[in-house]
Specification:
97 residues, mainly alpha, Arc Repressor Mutant, subunit A, 75% helix, globular
């Protein structure tokens, strides 16, 4: 069994503390609620645009790491199989609407 926490920790290595914090709070990765760009900007004393830039640069780093990370490939394959069982993303959205 693959530990999602282990994978996240590995992927987050190499990000700055601010990048980690922004991603964690923007996407609620610590189990808390998500925060807006404005809320994080207020917390750090910078603009929403600056937080967006920090988020974008961190996501770019993660995308590159995910592309070569074997455990991520396994997680995505499992997720894809699970979604296909429900008719895929489009099928799920159409039924929910």
């Amino acid at each position: 069994m693959i530990s999602a926490q282990k994978v996240f920790n590995g992927l987050f290595q190499g990000l700055s503390p601010r990048q980690k914090d922004v991603l964690t709070h923007r996407f609620g990765l610590a189990g808390g609620e998500t925060k807006t760009l404005a809320a994080l900007g207020g917390q750090y004393g910078v603009s929403r645009e600056r937080i967006r830039q920090i988020e974008a640069s961190a996501l770019d780093i993660l995308k590159k790491k995910i592309a070569v990370h074997a455990e991520c490939a396994q997680i995505f394959a499992h997720g894809k199989k699970h979604l296909q069982g429900f008719g895929g993303v489009a099928g799920r959205v159409q039924r929910a609407g």
